[in-house]
Amino acid sequence: MSLLALDRLTVRRGPCPVVDDVSFTIRAGEVVGLIGPNGAGKTTLMRACLGLIPAEGRVAITGRPLAELAPAERARIVAYLPQEREIAWPITVEALVALGRHPHRRPGARLSAADRAAVETALEMAEVSAFRTRPATELSGGERARVLMARALAQEAPLLLADEPVAGLDPAHALDLMETLGHLGAEGKAVLVSLHDLTLAARHCTRLVLLRAGRLLAEGPPEAVLSPATLAAAYGVSAFHAADARGPIVVPTGRIRP
Amino acid sequence: MTPQRLVLPLLGAVTLALFAASLLLGPAGAPAGRSLAALLTGDNPALALVMREIRLPRALLGLGIGAALGLAGAALQGYLRNPLAEPGLLGVSAAAALGAVLAFYTGLAALLPLALPLMALGGAFAATLLVVGLAGVAGGALTLILAGVAVSSLAGALTSLVLNLSPNPFAASEIMFWLLGSLADRSWMHVALAGPFILAGMGLLLLLARDLEALTLGEDAARSLGIPLGRTRALALGGTAAAVGAGVAVAGAIGFVGLVVPHLLRPVVGHSPSRLLPAAALGGASFLLAADVAARLIAPERDLKLGVLTALVGAPFFLRLVWTTRRRLA
Question: pTM of the entire structure?
Fold first, then answer.
């Protein structure tokens, strides 16, 4: 089943398009990596998928046009982890993760047993249950990133859009987080995750979408998208390509100057 | 720390006690029991008149306006995710004051007693419309703050201009004293005028609980959680304009309640922006009632202005808060 379908999505800021005529589909079970240089339009594309900014073209979620979905209904289908890791007040980690249950709760209702179970699972998955009672604002950058991930997981939405969730994470936690995304895929959910680490993208995503200057430059299996020619065209870098038993290794090694 | 569920009952009890104190303490000096009997039964007509026509409306206005200021402060701090936000930030208070000052200056206030509060309310709503017009319905928190500061400054400048042009020093000092804020000599007419707006405004602000929770994560995350922020903004601004505008209209500009009370109570409710709303309403009511009782007890013959007293009490609290925050961050 197609969870997210973009058809000729275009987002303009002023006269020039930031996202330009992009079409692709994400099905249940897929972990799709969204890669591309800074300013390629990755964040803009995700925000347009949620209707946070006006866009041309069509966005369909579970086959239904985005505009037809009420905000609360959409929030039960799509979870979004923004790149900005804003936490305004020093509420506890537990309380923050429980915010992910908002779309499932009636106004003023207490957390139900299902809500509490979802929060517990999310705390475990993101490995943050150890500091559940600490104020979320007092955590380190990496801990904060994992807590916010837990919040998005607690939403239990079939589709997760995660904008650079591993930025600032140490290698172990970056690997754990990518594995968590893989588990979501294995459960039949779908993930669109923007990444800058090409090896993580190659090893943990079932498919990659490469944006450059707002346009879709390449789409397909990681090995095909991360070919030397495409990397040179997209990023202007050469890369060391290798592989071990668990998948490809892609490490940028040099700048190609035209 | 106080268990969370005791916070609201405790604050409610304090508010009730201060409401009773505001009702029973005053220059008439009658014993509390006799005052209460006169209020309820009406025997002793002179005392009953004092209780029913002077003390009761004054205590009710203290309760309502204090609650409005505390609640609006908590709502705006939550909405703007800024601990320095207060009702005055959006220009509501300054514009309401300008409306009132214009009523004085044009002489309408002397001709028609209702002209002053009505023009103040008009000022509050005009300022809100202007701020929304400037910042846009979908604009972010920063544009809203900037628009509020701009409208506030303009209203303040125009108020100064009116003071500057006022025909004689007595008119100017009358305006000045009104601006300092007071609950003295208010009647049922004031309660009838401000009450509905305060209740309606507070009702709108209390609907914000869920939205403010989600906004802890920022505007994009809140919208992705299904919160329609256009509605949030309408509730926050409309509620503040009605509740605080009505408060300023009948009592003048009373500062510091909306800033300090949410601050003091935020740690008590575990920093939850939604649980802060009812707590700040009760805290604001307690604070204003206490200040009004103090104004009557400290210098009954000098008509100590309420706005002066809230600032005098509020500022040291605030200094202490800054001090402890600095030590915690150091």
Answer: 0.92
